[in-house]
Amino acid sequence: QVQLVESGGGVVQPGGSLRLSCAVSGLYVSRNAMSWYRQAPGNEREWVATIPRAALSTYAGFVKGRFTISRDNNKNTVYLQMNSLQFEDTAVYYCKALGWNSWGQGTQVTVSS
To answer: What is the pLDDT of residue 54?
Structure first.
């Protein structure tokens, strides 16, 4: 059974930074492409970033160089470093493994002045 536990969200001012974590059990992050998604109130869930098993990570256009996805294979954890946060980044953030239909509970990110 695949379990994903997101953490690291919070309230931050515009221009601030947060680092999200996704602790994974039931599969190896080193052997799977891992992604972050987000869902803002009233909106559909949207893709943010993917780190493949090999090759370069990819990002949604709205990221514009502000976010970095990474993983720690020893901790079986995926991260999303978010810098220069904007009001529009307010959402619940989720991680997911490609090909697996499992979602965690998400972590709330709120950008507010």
So the answer is: 87
